[in-house]
Prior knowledge:
Blueprint: H1 2-23, H2 27-33, H3 36-65, H4 70-110
Helix pairs in contact: 3-4
Amino acid sequence: xxxxxxxxxxxxxxxxxxxxxxxxxxxxxxxxxxxxxxxxxxxxxxxxxxxxxxxxxxxxxxxxxxxxxxxxxxxxxxxxxxxxxxxxxxxxxxxxxxxxxxxxxxxxxxx
Length: 111
């Protein structure tokens, strides 16, 4: 009885992963199954996706250096990014307003 259990365990623990390895298609095989338009789009977007992934990994490494949990460090960084973005938008709006006023002054002086 123990021999049958050991044999079944061995067959399942070795045969299962071996079957997955044998039947699972590689990335190249999946790519070849795409239609030509999807292949073209995938190739065009590959560099951007790779850059996004590299940025993501870089940020994770940065977050992991702090003594806080990663999700807290990420939330704090996201809030800081939003604040910087809002500040930049305010500066851009102020610059646009200054340009408008300058154009109005030039139009009034030119008449």
